[in-house]
Specification:
It is built from 15 helices and two strands. With 363 residues, it is mostly helical. It has one domain (19-293). The protein has a two-stranded antiparallel sheet with strand order 1-2. Strand 1 (162-164) and strand 2 form a beta hairpin. The longest helix is centred in the first third of the chain and has 31 residues, at 23-53.
Length: 363
């Protein structure tokens, strides 16, 4: 909004206001703005959630036993705090004439709405069922399919139906009319992958922040023709503005971590996990780095695969591969303390983030 107001009234492009034309400046401001908003609203927001929810998030009885004692009474829906900070900062600092910004924001909002409905039903019914799986997936697939078609329309014709591969510069896989389906699977997949990962205090939000940091840089480079040509990336004009969105996500995530760090004062709930995963998936589709997201978000991929493998193998043999799925519960059952699991997953996420950055140059 500030960029659009200044661009409309400032024709000199000089002095202090010239800074608003730089993506790096606006991205930094978006990050700080989101951080300040989340920190400022955090305590009163959590207090209000406690007044409304009283008994806090329902805890699964089939999960680790200690969760029933240690996490009972902790409020959920903290994802609303992340979304408020994220959208406020993005609307303030991004170029609101950019279609990619609106496509990603509305996708994030749609997944957040699905998560909100799920959290609300769990709280109102005092169980862990929420929205039925069929309804939930149907809404997610619809939202991500619309996002895929929208992002496809915004992409240059020569890249519109293509999937790029990391570590190689000239290989593009043409999907034709199937590309929106691929985008739908990517966005919905990562929405649910983050949801699977969100099971311990601080476990999901830090890998999200790391992925957002990587994709803030990717968005900036892919959106800049000079940098894209130098690094032999496939340029997608307009995606540079998503660096502002990703930076706002970093700030909002760090602000939320202040309250979600062990022991958590609030959980993000499905409102947060679905929306953040959907946001990362949408940014990856927009920048043509869907497969790089699988590397950077490897923790989310591993958590999802552990669930899929567990269900598949149990149905076939009646035996379990893991002591409990998702993967972080397996380590809990092995006797690892929660902080050790969380910090080690963070370390793995940092390493995977560096591997994702390496794909930008190793071609």
């Amino acid at each position: 909004m500030l960029f659009n107001l200044i661009a409309a009234h400032d024709t000199s492009h000089g002095g202090f206001f010239n800074l608003f034309h730089y993506l790096t400046f606006r991205s930094g401001c978006a990050c700080l703005t989101a951080l300040v908003i989340s920190l400022a609203l955090g305590n009163p927001f959590i207090a209000q959630l406690k007044r409304i929810q009283r008994e806090g998030q329902p805890i699964r009885t089939v999960g680790p036993e200690r969760h029933i004692l240690e996490k009972a009474g902790t409020p959920t829906m903290g994802g609303m705090l992340i979304l408020i900070a994220l959208f406020s900062a993005t609307l303030l600092w991004a170029d609101l004439t950019n279609g990619f910004v609106w496509a990603v924001m509305l996708t994030t909002a749609a997944f957040g709405a699905v998560g909100f409905a799920d959290d609300y039903l769990k709280l109102s019914k005092r169980n862990t069922t929420g929205v039925s799986k069929r309804t939930r997936l149907g809404c997610e697939f619809l939202a991500s399919l619309v996002a895929g078609i929208w992002l496809q329309y915004l992409t240059p014709p020569e890249l519109r139906n293509m999937v790029a591969f990391p570590f190689v510069k000239d290989v593009l896989l043409p999907l034709g009319y199937a590309f929106p389906i691929f985008a739908m699977i990517t966005i919905t997949g990562f929405g649910n992958a983050v949801n699977f990962t969100d099971g311990l205090d601080g476990l999901a939000i830090v890998p999200v922040v790391i992925a957002a940091l990587v994709f803030a840089l990717i968005s900036y480079l892919v959106g800049n023709h000079v940098f894209a040509d130098y690094l032999q990336l496939h340029p997608v004009p307009g995606t540079g503005e998503l660096a502002v969105f990703c930076a706002a996500l970093i700030g909002a995530g760090l602000g939320f971590l202040w309250f979600n760090a062990p022991p958590a004062a609030v959980f993000m709930g499905d409102t947060g996990s679905l929306s953040l995963g959907g946001a990362l998936g949408a940014v990856a589709v927009a920048t043509k780095h869907e497969l790089v997201l699988c590397i950077v978000g490897g923790v989310f991929v591993a958590e999802t695969l552990s669930v899929v493998i567990q269900i598949f193998w149990f149905k076939r043999t009646g035996r379990r591969v893991f002591l409990m799925a998702p993967l972080h519960h397996h380590f809990e059952k092995k006797g690892w303390q929660e902080p050790k699991i969380v910090i080690r997953f963070w370390i793995v996420s940092i390493v995977l983030g560096l591997c994702g950055l390496a794909t930008l140059k190793l071609r």
